[in-house]
Amino acid sequence: MKKPSFLISLVPIIVLLVLIALNVILEPDDTLAGSNQLSLFLASFVAGVIALCYGTSWTQLVEGITRAFVSAVPAFLILLMVGVLSGSWMTSGIIPTMIYYGLEVLRPEFFLPATVLLTVVISLATGSSWSTVATIGVALIAVGNALGIDPAWSAGAIISGAYFGDKVSPLSDTTNLAATVAEVPLFDHIRFMMRTTIPTIVVTLVAFTVMGFCAGGSTADISSTAEFQQAIASTYRISGWFMLVPLVVLVLIVRRMPAVPVLMIGSLLAVVCAAIFQQPLLEQLAGEPLDWGSGYRVLTRCMYGATEPSTGVEAVDSLLSTGGMWGMMPTVWLIISAMVFAGVMDAGGFLAKMTDSLASRLSRRAPMVTATAASCLLFNLTTGDQYMSIVVPGKMFHEAYRRKGYDSCLLSRTLEDGATATSVLIPWNTCGATQATILGVATFSYLPFAIFCWLSPLMTILFAWLGIAQSPKFRKTV
Q: 468 Cβ partners below 8 Å, 6+ apart?
């Protein structure tokens, strides 16, 4: 099979980026409805034609797509379960309770930095940005809306805090993966990563504090907050005891139970709460007197389909409406499209050619770090998967770092800063698509405000060019 050149390998990516840019310009509010999916398929077609011209068989392309699909199955399962969790937690009163009490204690000027800190704590405890966003993140985005905060700002703060824990928590799968790929002890990796991560989160907190005072009180006042609370309390039973369900979920995640069963347990506990404590709401949603049949229908519908409570306040109704499992289908469709593109790019040899070309042109540490971070971003763009964006550049650059005498901690840190943090900034990446769907904010809308995520690779590149913290003092350079 004849290998494509570096420039030829870039053609499908250029086609994809041009099509995505047109989508953003021409229909910025509806890209998830199909235009981005179509763009991925068109770019896949271009890549497939080029690959066939260079000797790749159709069977090889199908096998590449199949491999990509297999890698995305866990994301599909988690996405569907997040839809179930969101619907059941909303109907049971768990999220409305979070919103109600959040409006009691959070003021507009302090909301954004408080959101960052809350999501930092939860993500450190769970090691999961997805679980953090799907639980406390959903409540916080609703509180922000009630306080009059721009949803893009709120989403940026939530994602910034959630991905801090995803990067540095010893419970995080990406943290463990980066350390494993670079062959670095886990806690050496975490300690060295703090050199860039702490300055990044400090800058993020300062930025959101300034933004909070700029936004604070501009569109929200005490009367509107009270109206939101009254509308929630008139429709849902509000009780602090409902917080036992999120607590159970948090404990199970910390104990390293897999995400899918944890989300199912959390959903079923919420359904029990709804059946016991929210019977007037269930009757309203059912549109008929409540019996076992209508109760079963409305409780199952809240998990798989749309749930739209009527509180008498349109803004509150919008906040508390959910799509359940069905609401996740556009994101599943997007990830399927992304996996087709990733599979064709892999089978056609385009990804291997681009990474080999990057690695062969490096001679000094700063360009090496820059190229590693750029490769992570490239794989996030082309494979739509943050795990691939850690594994492939990690394997590709590991020997190069060893030959140059650079510590493996430098590689593992760059993988996290370049891959984990940027995955959520790409609309067709599993992370970007999922978080946008869960929070109800388009990826390109929250991207400028996901400060921690886009600042992380810039910080690691800056440190490399300045020669700061390039070798851990607690380890001998290998």
A: 195
